[in-house]
Write a structure and sequence with these properties.
The complex is a heterodimer of chains A (436) and B (255). Chain A is of the alpha/beta class and 436 residues long. Chain A has 10 helices and 21 strands. The mean pLDDT of chain A is 94. Chain B is an alpha/beta fold and 255 residues long. In chain B, strand 9, helix 6 (178-190) and strand 10 (197-201) form a beta-alpha-beta unit. Chain B is globular, with a radius of gyration of 18 Å. The model of chain B has no long low-confidence stretch (mean pLDDT 92). The chains are: A alpha/beta (436), B alpha/beta (255).
Chain lengths: 436, 255
């Protein structure tokens, strides 16, 4: 399979080599060379042991056609959070849709635009960071290499020193019927300067029922004392494939708060990587995935403690119904200098069906001696005693199951500080398994 | 209201109830007493429809319906309520949400409209007073981190919200200090209506000083071996169960 698929991607690359500044062409060529050298991973690759990317590779997705141009504000409305007027960038089939976007009410010191514009307007800043964080020179990161080689557009956010953006910036990536058989490469760059603060929602969805592939990469530079809160909401179409890689680097005393909510796609892989590169910083990586049918959802997180006195907190929860398959791989790497590291990782799974499956793998590598690192995983089923208690109070079997499923997920949803989004995702969690 | 005829039930291979006969009419309070392991709680759970117990014989007729044919939630809709001996903790579900959901499910089943969260708070204000609980409990998870007394009061609160016709209180007094016992018993008494009935399952007589029964039944070995008025409870308090059990053994041997 791979030779054909690789040739197809090489062909896609042929069209991109002449675009953009020299540094960008060099970046693309380097990434393409890395992809050529390593090829696609298989389940023999440790990082892909539980999830085979073969279905994505074999589907040989072609570059996505531009949107049909028929999406209106009304089509986008269901993907927005009711009652909010957040700055919103909308992308359709990987292309920026300015007519569906709104960038207003933002304080001075904040620049939000699509990456293609930023390449022209902010070439120095973009050139300094783009491709510098998201690793691609290994087989496990073949999709990141392809994104880097073939990137076209995405979001760009720059928050200047001491600037606090109170309202979140909402990035909406939609695929419409025209996405059928196609792949898009959303590429986002977030730069939060010293003591600045921002919140991003990176959301994926589909207006139709197309079979497509989203290969997304987000890089985030979080400077000293800065805070970035990043919400990923993956509700791709049920036939879609999604591979997303988020990679952050954190300066001294900075904070990175990440939440990954995943209910969509036939197969999704979500990498969330952060490097604690300054002393005294903290990372909180939480997530919730709710799957049914034959969905596969794989989260791979990586927290690299490279400096002393940092903390990391991780809580991932999964609710798996039918024959769905969840994967959680939590890497924590503590460098010899990273003394006083305080790390905690938890992965809890609720299995609603005997055919559902979870592979959970904590992966702690600790090379400092004065650290506190714990991890724990639980796998359970709905509690019959709780169900009977609810039924004895008049709650029907279906509602009881729904309520208890929601209750399982409630504490991780509770960590979402952005109230309107929390409400929206709680609603989504409550309704996830209705009418089965 | 409730007619239990020759009811037998088991858990796994173990036969627990061996032919219970009991009739409860509207307006009555029945106490069921008996030594540990006599089947008191099993009877309460079977009435509520606990799936862990298998009914192996006999029948329960409730308001003209075959109760054993109904799902637990349908029994609740029909006005049957069990106050649990060991109330279940449900982390992640607030009492407010739980109580409102239960209230609306029962209303729906009765053909009444659902109540929105704001109106429900008004409903709750009055009910909370009945069990001397603070509104803050509504925002806590169901029974999570509750003391023993709080859990039992929460059971009575649920009873107040659902307004059942037949309430079965399963050892609602166990583990309560005297103040909590008084609050729980007062709550139950205030909820008594001429059209309602209460079955009080208890190991001790003291609850019956507060909730005065019309009838007292002694359950032993899965059967009711003696029935009487409230004075029977006092006699049991004074003499224990042994005299009855001996009598039963003798009677059984004579048969």
């Amino acid at each position: 399979m791979t030779t054909e698929a690789r040739d197809a991607y090489r062909q896609q690359f042929g069209g991109a080599t002449t675009e953009g500044a020299e540094w960008l062409r060099a970046l693309r060529t380097g990434a393409m060379t890395a992809f050529d050298t390593h090829g696609f991973p298989t389940t023999r690759n440790e990082d892909w042991h539980f999830t085979s990317p073969a279905p994505i590779i074999e589907a040989a997705f072609a570059p996505m056609m531009p949107a049909l141009g028929t999406l209106t504000a009304a089509d986008v409305e269901p993907f927005l959070v009711p009652g909010t007027e957040w700055a919103t960038l909308v992308f359709v089939n990987g292309r920026y849709a300015p007519q569906l976007s709104r960038v207003e009410h933002l304080p001075d010191g904040v620049r939000v635009m699509n990456l293609a514009s930023a390449l022209l307007e902010e070439p120095t800043l973009v050139g300094a960071h783009l491709g510098s964080l998201a690793r691609y020179d290994q087989q496990a990161f073949a999709f990141t290499a392809l994104n880097t080689a073939l990137l076209r557009d995405g979001a760009f956010l720059h928050v200047r020193q001491d600037t606090v953006v109170e309202t979140p910036i909402h990035l909406v990536y939609l695929s419409d019927a025209g996405a059928e058989g196609g792949v898009s490469y959303p590429r986002n760059l977030i730069v939060v300067d010293r003591h600045a603060k921002a919140t991003i929602i990176e959301q994926y969805g589909a207006t139709g029922d197309a079979r497509y592939f989203t290969n997304a990469v987000t890089e985030a530079v979080i400077a000293d004392g800065a805070t970035l809160t990043h919400y990923k909401v993956q509700r791709e179409g049920r036939k879609a494939f999604h591979v997303g890689h988020i990679e952050a680097t954190q300066g001294r005393d900075s904070h990175f708060i990440s939440f990954s909510f995943a209910t969509g796609a036939a197969l999704s892989r979500n990498n969330i990587y952060t490097r604690l590169a300054g002393a005294g910083c903290g990372a909180t990586l939480n997530g919730l995935y709710m799957l049914d049918g034959e969905q596969i959802c794989d989260h791979q997180t990586s927290i690299e403690h490279a400096e002393p006195n940092c903390y990391s907190r991780e809580l991932y929860k999964g609710v798996l119904d039918d024959s769905s398959h969840g994967v959680f791989n939590g890497k924590v790497y503590v460098h010899p200098v990273a003394q006083k590291t305080d790390g905690k990782q938890t992965n809890n799974t609720l299995l609603l069906s005997p055919r559902a499956r979870i592979d959970t793998k904590p992966q702690l590598e600790i090379f400092a001696d004065d650290v506190k690192c714990t991890h724990g995983a639980t796998i359970g089923q709905l509690d019959d005693r709780m169900a009977f208690y609810l039924k004895s109070r008049g709650v029907g079997a279906e509602s009881a199951r729904q309520l208890l499923t929601y209750a399982f997920a409630a504490d991780v949803l509770e960590t979402i500080e952005l109230e309107p989004l929390k409400g929206e995702l709680e609603k989504s969690a409550l309704e996830r398994f209705v009418s089965k | 209201m409730l007619t239990i005829t020759n009811l037998s039930a088991s858990v796994g291979d173990k036969q627990i109830l061996r032919g219970i006969n009991l009739t409860v009419n509207a307006g009555e309070v029945h106490a069921i007493m008996g030594p540990n392991g006599s089947g008191k709680s099993t009877l309460a759970q079977v009435i509520a429809g606990h799936p862990g117990y298998e009914v192996t014989g006999g029948s329960i007729e409730y308001e003209g319906k075959d109760l054993l044919e109904l799902e637990p939630e349908e029994r609740a809709h029909a006005g049957v309520f069990l106050a649990f001996q060991y109330p279940i903790e449900i982390p992640g579900v607030t009492n407010a949400y739980f109580l409102r959901t239960a209230y609306n499910e029962v209303r729906k089943a009765r053909g009444e409209g659902e109540v929105d969260p704001m109106d429900f708070l008004d409903v709750m204000a009055e009910k909370l007073k009945l069990v001397e609980m603070d509104e803050s409990m509504l925002h806590r998870s169901v029974n999570q981190g509750f003391s023993g007394g709080e859990k039992k009061r929460n059971e009575i609160l649920q009873m107040a919200v659902l307004e059942p016709k037949l309430a079965v209180l399963d050892e609602t007094d166990s583990g309560l200090d005297i103040d909590a016992l008084r609050i729980v018993a007062d709550g139950v008494n205030k909820l008594r209506r001429p059209g309602n009935a209460t079955i009080v399952v208890t190991h001790y007589q003291r609850l019956l000083n507060h909730i005065v029964p019309d009838f007292v039944h002694v359950l032993a070995g899965g059967r009711i071996i003696k029935s009487g008025g409230k004075e029977l409870a006092l006699e049991l308090e004074a003499r224990g169960y042994d005299w009855l059990l001996e009598h039963e053994t003798t009677a059984g041997a004579a048969r």
